[in-house]
């Protein structure tokens, strides 16, 4: 239904803070696209990190790591300001003094007051006002109050309609469904809608949800609402949908909760079990709409398709988010079905919160950019842990990817902070240009991820944080450039010779930070001569899981790392490596003395790595 111009003006004023959230996320697209691998928060001094088998072994490192601030920090700060505005936009309890009271009992309903009429078990609300609904019955409520504001207060209402939506908001300016304090309310529909009343349309499939609204809808209050949708969708708002401070439980044959123009959730507890998407916003005709903002809420989502799907942008701050999509990381769905965890066609911003994502498809996905500023993440997925068609920026948080095809993937990856551990059956980090052949779920799923085509924009940049990678394919794979300027990076790369711990198609430079990358020697690469920090590459004739330790001429340990699996090649770099210095590398059960006649020792990929016990081939 077309919106009236006046109504749209009212909408944009009323929901100004939501629009700010959208505009803020859109600004990310203008940021310089930089790439980096999985990263973690900066480590400024020496320390010991013990990890379990999901990432790597034990590390002891010494060296100063600078704290790098990027433009994503500014974006995150602005997003936090917007979230604060959304958090303060609360819904007050309505005054029920003099309200019309509607009571359901069996197949009949009674009305005490004005503005509503009852015919059998069907109640029609036709005027603005506040209505209190109670009782248990078989029937429905239809709101037909054109251009008027209606408040429905549910006080232990249990309503079942076998032939249509038990709560159908046909016309209003806005409708608030308020769940009274301490109340438990239930709406249940049947498996088949008859569409035989003047307000319904079989051709348009309207209504198609247990709670269906054609105008702005607010669900608020400290009570509980249980929605059981046997026909199609659980809750649908065809304009804006806001859920504030409420407890909502939805079981739906198809989609769970849909706010077409926008979906905003604040301080709510949401549980959805759905055959389709759990939460969604779907307006694809107006770029200022179709967004989702979730603040300080607890989400438990079990979906056959996407857990959260935003047509434009998705922003989440605080609370908890547990998603199982498509049967989880070991699930199987049709090739044309999207079963992602958090999915946005526009920019996706995660500012804080606790996330547990068990997903058949990508766990965190954007067709544009992803910014992760904070939070804790436990991710298992049948495809990518984190995927953006453009840029992925991680500036904080603790991210653990226990299972993935590729851990973090984007046209570019920018890591400035946080702590990240990635386990991947293919590449740990992948910056790709053009069409990436991995597609959904890796080989066998068909299709492919799409990226921008400008090779100058394809890179991985690690400027801070702590990163662990355990990859069966390439550990860090950039189809453009690789830039390391800070942080700590530890890579357990491949055991086969078809991949490398480090793999890049452009140039690789290191100017700061700590890096230890171990794996097979067949495709090994070292950093290039434009680097300003030393880097040593050594290959060994036999493999081992023994610790890698770098000491200086005085016997001081600069870096120590215990790999998780067998390796026969090591790339190691830290701030203590200087030209002219002599160092001892202990690895694969051997000790090798290395003198840096230049900053880069060993080139790999046909150039030859340094050999244990001697100087680099071709160098004095």
Description:
Helices cover 6% and strands 45% of the residues. The chain is built from 3 helices and 55 strands. The strands form 3 sheets. It has a 47-stranded mixed beta sheet that branches. It has a 6-stranded antiparallel beta sheet with strand order 1-2-51-50-53-54, with no helix packed on it. Strand 1 (47-50) and strand 2 form a beta hairpin. The radius of gyration is 28 Å and the shape is elongated.
Write the layout of secondary structure elements.
Elements: H1 5-14, H2 16-26, E1 47-50, E2 58-61, H3 71-88, E3 100-106, E4 108-112, E5 116-119, E6 122-125, E7 129-138, E8 140-144, E9 149-161, E10 167-171, E11 174-179, E12 184-189, E13 209-213, E14 216-220, E15 224-229, E16 233-237, E17 240-244, E18 247-252, E19 257-259, E20 262-266, E21 269-274, E22 279-281, E23 291-295, E24 298-303, E25 308-310, E26 314-317, E27 320-325, E28 342-344, E29 348-350, E30 354-359, E31 364-366, E32 370-372, E33 376-381, E34 386-394, E35 398-403, E36 408-415, E37 419-424, E38 429-431, E39 435-436, E40 449-450, E41 459-462, E42 466-471, E43 476-478, E44 481-484, E45 488-492, E46 502-504, E47 508-510, E48 514-519, E49 535-544, E50 548-551, E51 557-561, E52 567-573, E53 582-587, E54 590-595, E55 600-601
Parallel strand pairs: 3-7, 6-8, 7-9, 8-10, 9-11, 9-12, 10-13, 11-14, 12-15, 13-16, 14-17, 15-18, 16-19, 17-20, 18-21, 19-22, 20-23, 21-24, 22-25, 23-26, 24-27, 25-28, 26-29, 27-30, 28-31, 29-32, 30-33, 31-34, 32-34, 33-35, 34-36, 35-37, 36-38, 36-41, 37-42, 38-43, 41-44, 42-45, 43-46, 44-47, ...
Antiparallel strand pairs: 1-2, 2-51, 3-4, 5-6, 39-40, 48-52, 49-52, 50-51, 50-53, 53-54
């Amino acid at each position: 239904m077309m919106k009236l111009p006046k109504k749209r003006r009212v909408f944009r004023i009323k929901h100004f803070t939501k629009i700010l959230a959208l505009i803020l996320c859109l600004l990310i697209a203008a940021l310089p696209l930089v790439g980096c691998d999985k990263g973690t928060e900066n480590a400024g001094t020496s320390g010991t990190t013990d990890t379990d088998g999901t990432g790597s072994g034990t590390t002891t490192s010494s060296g100063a790591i600078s704290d790098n601030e990027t433009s994503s920090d500014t974006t995150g700060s602005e997003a936090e300001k917007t979230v604060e505005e959304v958090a303060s936009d609360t819904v007050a309890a309505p005054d029920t003094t003099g309200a019309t009271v509607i009571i359901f009992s069996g197949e009949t309903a009674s009305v005490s007051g004005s503005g509503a009429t009852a015919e059998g078990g069907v109640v029609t609300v036709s005027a603005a006002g506040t209505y209190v609904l109670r009782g248990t019955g078989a029937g429905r409520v239809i709101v037909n109050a054109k251009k008027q504001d209606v408040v429905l207060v549910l006080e232990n209402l249990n309503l079942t309609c076998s032939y249509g939506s038990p709560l159908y908001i046909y016309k209003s300016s806005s409708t608030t469904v308020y769940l009274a304090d301490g109340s438990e309310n239930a709406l249940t529909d049947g498996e088949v809608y008859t569409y035989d009343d003047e307000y319904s349309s079989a051709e348009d499939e309207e209504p198609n949800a247990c709670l269906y609204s054609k105008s702005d809808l607010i669900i608020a209050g400290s009570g509980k609402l249980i929605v059981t949708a046997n026909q199609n969708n659980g809750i649908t708002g065809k304009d804006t949908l806001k859920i504030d401070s409420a407890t909502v439980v939805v079981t739906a044959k198809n989609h769970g909760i849909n706010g077409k123009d926008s979906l905003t959730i604040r301080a709510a507890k949401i549980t959805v079990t759905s055959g389709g998407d759990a939460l969604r916003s779907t307006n694809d005709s107006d770029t200022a709409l179709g967004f989702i903002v979730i603040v300080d809420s607890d989400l438990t989502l079990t979906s056959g398709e996407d857990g959260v799907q935003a047509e434009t942008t998705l922003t989440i701050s605080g609370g908890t988010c547990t998603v199982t999509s498509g049967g989880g990381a070991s699930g199987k769905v049709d090739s044309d079905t999207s079963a992602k965890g958090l999915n946005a066609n526009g920019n996706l911003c995660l500012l804080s919160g606790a996330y547990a994502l068990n997903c058949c498809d990508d766990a965190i996905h954007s067709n544009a950019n992803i910014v992760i500023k904070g939070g804790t993440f436990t991710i298992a997925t049948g495809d990518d842990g984190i995927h953006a068609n453009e840029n992925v920026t991680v500036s904080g948080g603790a991210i653990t990817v226990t299972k993935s095809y590729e851990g973090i993937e984007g046209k570019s990856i920018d890591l400035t902070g946080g702590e990240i551990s990635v386990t991947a059956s293919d590449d740990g980090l992948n910056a790709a240009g053009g069409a990436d052949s991995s597609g959904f779920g890796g080989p066998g799923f068909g299709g492919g991820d799409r990226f921008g085509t400008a090779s100058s924009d394809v890179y991985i940049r690690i400027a801070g944080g702590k990163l662990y990678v355990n990859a069966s394919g390439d550990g860090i794979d950039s189809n453009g450039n690789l830039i390391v300027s800070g942080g700590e990076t530890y890579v357990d790369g491949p055991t086969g010779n078809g991949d490398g711990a480090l793999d890049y198609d452009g140039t690789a430079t290191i100017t700061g930070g700590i890096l230890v990358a171990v794996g097979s020697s067949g495709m090994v690469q070292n950093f290039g001569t434009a680097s300003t920090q030393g880097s040593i590459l050594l290959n060994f004739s036999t493999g081992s899981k023994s610790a890698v330790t770098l000491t200086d001429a005085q016997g001081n340990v600069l870096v120590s790392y215990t790999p998780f699996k067998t390796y026969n090649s090591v790339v190691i770099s830290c701030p203590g490596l200087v030209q002219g210095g002599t160092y001892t590398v202990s690895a694969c059960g051997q000790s090798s003395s290395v003198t840096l006649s230049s900053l880069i020792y060993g080139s790999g990929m046909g150039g030859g790595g340094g050999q244990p016990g001697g100087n680099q081939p071709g160098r004095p």
